[in-house]
Specification:
It is a single chain. This protein has 303 residues and is mainly alpha-helical. The protein folds into two domains: 8-196, Hypothetical protein af1432 (Orthogonal Bundle); 199-296, 2-Layer Sandwich (Beta Polymerase, domain 2). 67% of the residues lie in helices and 4% in strands. Strands 1-2 form a two-stranded antiparallel sheet. Helix 2 runs parallel beside helix 4, helix 7 packs across helix 9 and helix 8 (136-151) packs antiparallel against helix 9. The protein binds manganese (II) ion.
């Protein structure tokens, strides 16, 4: 950072941005920050916080998705055309056509109203968003925007937060899923779940949290013994965790009409190996350690 910045808030935030992604032009981003701060200075969020906290969170999320400088800057400026006096001409003069295009497109798709909950309608609406956006980065800014709004939903009244949560479930969760951004998909889904079906959410989370530690410990043991055997057999594999979202657990319970203790994939290990043959070799070792449940076993390698 060559530019001297007098604001400790900006400096601290820039540190976070740098930690999230190492290849951004921080001077340019600091410029967008100051511009946004100035433009939004009269505004507050419903929580009473200064408005800038919102674009800051959105831009940081975009940085952690490893997006480019233009997109992160657009994240800082994404509400400017809608909520302030700043015009497209001023934005172009200051940041050029690329940033302006992104901000303009986000404003445009934010103005599209989703009316019906019907599935075909939702699908049409998603298509409309994608075609209106023209550039994938626009959708990603919108997803980051929605994520922060969902995280801060408690400051809105019940009716409004329900409407936003429903729209999130119908439109933005499937979009995040389609673009393969699982972390955002899961968080959006669980935040919406908590608002839409609070009783089920509360019951499920309290039950799961109470034995989560026990389960994690058990799974850690399983992982260790698999690693030991793999090493002996000379298999090189990457073993990672996967936690099912609260919503997908609940969804499965509804769909299959089963109880929580009949959902077997709340936590899972994912084993990545090189080739097919090695994959079967690894599977054989796992089966020699743990007896497979025949009726639940699926050969995803062959299929
Ligand atoms: Mn916004």
């Amino acid at each position: 950072m060559t530019e001297t910045t007098e604001s400790p808030v900006l400096n601290e935030w820039l540190q976070d941005v740098r930690k999230a992604s190492g290849r951004l032009d921080l001077d340019y981003i600091a410029h967008a920050y100051r511009f946004s701060e100035q433009a939004h200075r009269q505004q507050q969020r419903k929580s009473g916080e200064v408005y800038l906290t919102h674009p800051m969170a959105v831009a940081l999320e975009l940085a952690s998705l490893r997006l480019d400088t233009t997109t992160v800057a657009a994240g800082l400026l994404h509400d400017i055309l809608e909520d302030t006096e700043v015009t497209e001409e001023q934005l172009t003069e200051e940041f050029g056509p690329a940033v302006t295009f992104l901000v303009e497109s986000v404003t445009k798709i934010s103005g599209l109203e989703f009316q019906s909950r019907e599935e075909a309608q939702a699908e049409n609406f998603r298509k409309m968003l994608i075609s209106t956006a023209r550039d994938l980065r626009v959708i990603l800014i919108k997803l980051a925007d929605r994520l922060h709004n969902m995280r801060t939903l408690e400051h809105l009244n019940r009716r409004r937060s329900e409407r936003i949560a429903q729209e999130t479930m119908d439109i933005y969760v499937p979009l995040a899923h389609r673009f393969g951004i699982n972390r955002i998909k899961t968080e959006l889904e669980d935040l919406a779940f908590a608002v839409l079906i609070p009783d089920a959410y509360g019951k499920l989370t309290s039950t799961l949290e109470s034995d989560k530690r026990k389960k994690m410990k058990a799974l850690g043991g399983v992982r260790k013994s698999i690693q030991r055997e793999f090493k002996e057999a000379g298999i090189r594999a990457e073993i990672s965790w996967r936690l099912k979202s609260y919503y997908s657990i609940w969804n499965k319970m509804q769909r299959r009409d089963v109880e929580l203790d009949e959902v077997y994939d709340i936590m899972a290990l994912r084993i990545l190996t090189g080739e097919n043959a090695e994959c079967y070799h690894a599977l054989g070792i796992v089966h020699s350690l743990f007896v497979p449940i025949t009726e639940r076993f699926k050969d995803f390698i062959a299929r």
